[in-house]
Amino acid sequence: MKNVVLAVFIATGTLAWAQTAKEYTNRGRELYEKGEYVESLLNLNKAIEVDPNYAAAYYLRGNIKDKFDDRHGSMKDYNLAVEKNPKFAEAFFARGNVKMKLQDYYGAIDDYTAAIAINENYVEAYYNRGKAKQYLQAYQDAINDCTKIIQINPKSIDAYYMRGLLRIEFGDMKNGCLDLSKAGELGDLKAYELIKEKCNQKNQEDKY
């Protein structure tokens, strides 16, 4: 009987000391934020060993691999993160960013759109999707993404700045210059340099 009690005590004691996938992942996140990437990676690997379906561990491991420009490795981890959790908006967003670096703009747009479908107020996803559309010269669609950001956050300097540039590229000089002016008003001083370069130059031409 004593042996049975001792065996149960050892078993329960071992379970009490064993860390969960969430605990390993939280520790990995803390180390990642401190820039201790190797130690973070070790904890995330342990999290995945404990629970191979824990999406957050794959996502954070993908972030570390992306830091070291291991795009193939980060893509694999983001793929696993969204496979394990199809509602993981941040993982779709991160995978979209990798595709942007690889100049796969259509693929990036798909991932940003998936992130937005999960979180309709995902400002960063709208912004990056707008950038991808800009690279594809889909200016009006990119302008629409900037407009959506401004609806969510009327003080988004980046959205006004990018929409201003897009409108000028699209041929809408007046509204583009007004957007740049708004970006400058909100604190982006480089917007005034663009106003001098693009808007005032146009005004000078109109005088002759």
Describe the overall structure.
The protein contains twelve helices and no strands. The chain has 208 residues and is mostly helical. α2 (21-33) runs antiparallel to α3 (37-50) and α6 packs antiparallel against α7 (105-118). It is elongated, with a radius of gyration of 24 Å.
Task: Classify the beta-strand content into a percent band.
Answer: under 5%
Average pLDDT across residues? 90
Q: How many DSSP H or I helices? A: 12
The gyration radius over C-alpha positions equals 24 Å
Helix content: over 70%
DSSP strand count: 0
Helix/strand order: HHHHHHHHHHHH
Largest sheet: none
Shape: elongated
Task: Compute the separation of the termini in Å.
Answer: 104 Å
| Low-confidence runs of at least 5 consecutive residues | 1-17, 202-208
Structural class: mainly alpha
Short description:
This protein has 208 residues and is mostly helical. The protein has helices at 2-17, 21-33, 37-50, 55-67, 71-84, 89-101, 105-118, 123-135, 139-152, 157-169, 173-185, 190-207. Helix 2 runs antiparallel to helix 3 and helix 4 (55-67) packs antiparallel against helix 5.
Name a few traits of the molecule.
single chain; 208 residues; mainly alpha; 12 helices; elongated; disordered C terminus
How does the SSE layout of this entry go?
Blueprint: H1 2-17, H2 21-33, H3 37-50, H4 55-67, H5 71-84, H6 89-101, H7 105-118, H8 123-135, H9 139-152, H10 157-169, H11 173-185, H12 190-207
